[in-house]
Amino acid sequence: MPTLEHIEEWSTADDPVFTVGLPTAAQIAQPWVWSTHEEDDFPWHGLFHVQAAYLLLWSAVERIAALRFGPALDPMRRIKKLGELPSMPNWLEAAGVRMSGRRIVDSRDPEDAVRLGDDGSNAWVYWYQIRNNLSHRGKGSVREREIVNEAFIDVHDVTRLLLLELVPNVADAWTVRDAHGRECRWRLRARATTT
């Protein structure tokens, strides 16, 4: 049976899902989330890049939720509890999340919709539904690309802020990979407005 003798000490701040996975998701998506045109009639190439990055990003979100709330809760309950963290309103505001008028339907049942509350309530459930929809057919509109792009930026930026508050030493690892990101706290939306 393999042992973990080579691991002397483990810290959430050193978790590769957070230190490498999250920045990698940003690197995959960044060229595409701000792009408005491509050679083809429909931007499939960009959509698939952002979808892939979004799923990788959700690996980090689900890991945060599992570490924070434990394995006993089912995944959806853990996701809902992320939205109950006291700093969530601050993270939403700092990330510049647009909260009004956002609604997403379940691709398996168009009668079932999730709304992002005007106060940011239900944000994680809304974003999780977008994640779930990625694995179901029926996509192919420009609007789908816009939804996934905006959700990627929102989840990425809120997740960065969450980790910076709950695991402050993670900033050291991010600085090694992206020193310039420190000035905007590694938020994509903030970076886009300063460049």
Summarize this structure as a short list of keywords or feature phrases.
single chain, 2 strands, 195 residues, two-stranded antiparallel ribbon, mainly alpha, 8 helices
Write the layout of secondary structure elements.
Layout: H1 16-33, H2 44-69, H3 75-83, H4 88-95, E1 102-106, E2 109-116, H5 123-133, H6 142-166, H7 170-177, H8 188-194
Antiparallel strand pairs: 1-2
Helix pairs in contact: 1-2, 1-6, 1-7, 2-3, 2-6, 3-5, 4-6
Descriptive account of the structure:
It contains 8 helices and 2 strands. Helices cover 57% and strands 7% of the residues. The mean pLDDT is 88. With 195 residues, it is mainly alpha-helical. α1 crosses α7. The chain has a domain at 12-72 and 85-97 and 142-194.
> What order do the strands of the largest sheet run in, or round the barrel if closed?
1-2
How would a textbook summarize the main sheet? 2 strands, antiparallel
Radius of gyration: 17 Å
Please give the alpha-carbon distance between the first and last residues.
Answer: 51 Å
Q: Roughly what percent helix?
A: 55-70%
Give the CA-based shape. globular
The H-and-E topology, N to C, reads as HHHHEEHHHH
What can be said about this structure in brief?
The protein is mostly helical. The chain is built from 8 helices and 2 strands.
